[in-house]
Amino acid sequence: MSLQDTAIGRPARAATGASDLYRAVWRWHFYAGLLVLPFLISLSITGALYIYRDEIDAWYHADLKRVAVQQADRIAPTAMVASALQVVPGSALKYTAPAHPDSSAEITVKTADGKSAVYVDPYSGLVLGALSDRSTLMWTIRYLHSLKYFGTYARYAIEIAAGWSILLVGTGIYLWWPRGQKGGVLSVRGRPQRRVFWRDLHAVTGLFVGGFIVFLAITGMPWSGVWGAKVNQWANGNNFGYPDGVRVNVPMSDQKLDDIAKTSWTLEQARLPETPNVQDGAAPISLDQAVMKFDALGLHPGYSVALPGRPQGVFTGSVYPDDLSQQRVIHLDQYSGEPLLDMGYGDYGPMGKALEWGINTHMGQTFGAANQLILVMACIATVLLCVSAAVMWWKRRPSGSLGVPPMPSDKRVLRGLVAILALGGILFPLVGASLIVMLALDAIFMRSRRFGGAAG
């Protein structure tokens, strides 16, 4: 081989290598899109609605959640509970105080048919109505967002989709990278009739919304069935979540806080304390006295009180407002009314604080109205990203074919990319398992094409 041949061959090999890497990335960007896009559309629509959950529920359920503000004082909590039990017979489990002067109180009642949420006017004691517990419009949207209606395996699919969406963004940025081109980087060329218009719209939208997709995927992971549950157990077992030290000298039950009331992610594994030294014939304090104690301790308005269900039980006051610093859980001895455990956001470990901040921001709470507006715009842009991808694919695909991007000529490039992806699969086990499945399906697809071509 001459020096001239060598000089010509090096750029050619470099160009081929770059082309192979582009093909490999494009191929897995395509696969990630096939897997993720339906979930991204569903999550974006339901997520955008849930960001305004308080506003929408207050409007949609105004007959239950809103009351006329009166100059008179509110009636006692025990009177509200008594009114609720007259209309919906059963046993009271939880009392939720009105968060605002025009808010109703909510009493959770256990009946023979399940749990009901009974709404009571705090000024008159009039029962405004009742619903099955957690059946408001926004609870429905929340369960659709997490696919909770569709069982455990559907929720696993959400975890897989979150991991693959990170892959989608990473490969998308590589494909977007200008490489000397000017059009389609920050601007959209052509008209909607042309494929280049949808390609540029997809690329430019992805550039601006990609960071939000990654942030929402990562901050949504704590709710996942496998990764989130395992990280929660690890964090709280090693004092990185809620601090074990605050429970010194407090007897603990086997019941978890999440079993009796909606709680923060960090406290889902927290066990309830028990009332110590229970004496025969001792009289527990009333709900009214417990509420007075919680008020004196400074719980944020709108807190819930879970009622003790057994002699060793406690009154548990909990509240999770938009302001993270006001998150707080207090357990009272049901006989003396003294606090057994008082814990807030400031007591969480470093991982607990970081993940709670991420969750709070994910739900549009950390930065007020600006947080809500930015996330809604990100959700709209994500839907646009998905639609443009579908239109672009439809215009590009050959007739009668799925239109999978071509395999790189050098298979080592593909193996190297898969090795990098496998690192993410180790961190997120369900994503790793789905990667193995996708590799198997890709191999079957390529083999069927080879045999089909040979037969032809």
Automatic annotation (TrEMBL):
Name the UniProt key words of this record, in alphabetical order.
Answer: Membrane, Transmembrane, Transmembrane helix
Signal sequence coordinates: none
Transmembrane as UniProt keyword: yes
The keyword NAD appears for this protein: no
The portions of this protein that span the membrane are: 28-52, 156-177, 197-218, 373-394, 414-441
User: Which Pfam families is this protein grouped with?
Assistant: PepSY_TM
Q: Which PANTHER family match?
A: IRON-REGULATED INNER MEMBRANE PROTEIN-RELATED, PEPSY DOMAIN-CONTAINING PROTEIN
User: What is the name of the protein in this document?
Assistant: PepSY domain-containing protein
**From what organism does this protein derive?**
Paracoccus aurantius
